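[User] Once you have settled down, look closely at the record that follows, and write a paragraph about the fold.
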Amino acid sequence: MKENSAIEKKSLKIVQGDNTNWRKLAKEAVCFANAYGGKLLIGIEDDSDLPPDGQLIEENLPYKIVSKIEQNTINVGLQPGQSGYNLSSFSKKFIDHPAFLRFTL
């Protein structure tokens, strides 16, 4: 899966750890919102089609990402989509250890 005007892949490092960069992620969200929307895949490296083996997403991270995008933008919101390999709806019972997150703008 290649990146294009409708798909953007971001490393998990952008939202957790020492390299967290909420402003950069917010900028990507604004670009999609100003265009035709798109899918933001968090947890997949630019040069990969799949997340790294053994990668797990913290349970509260999707909520944190949505909150941080709302805090760093005006009228831009992410809509969580199906994520990881264990497909499930974004609800009270989120996914048991997904490998990546998918958001739609």
About this structure: Residues 22-34 form the longest helix (13 residues). The two ends are 18 Å apart (CA to CA). The chain has a mean pLDDT of 80.
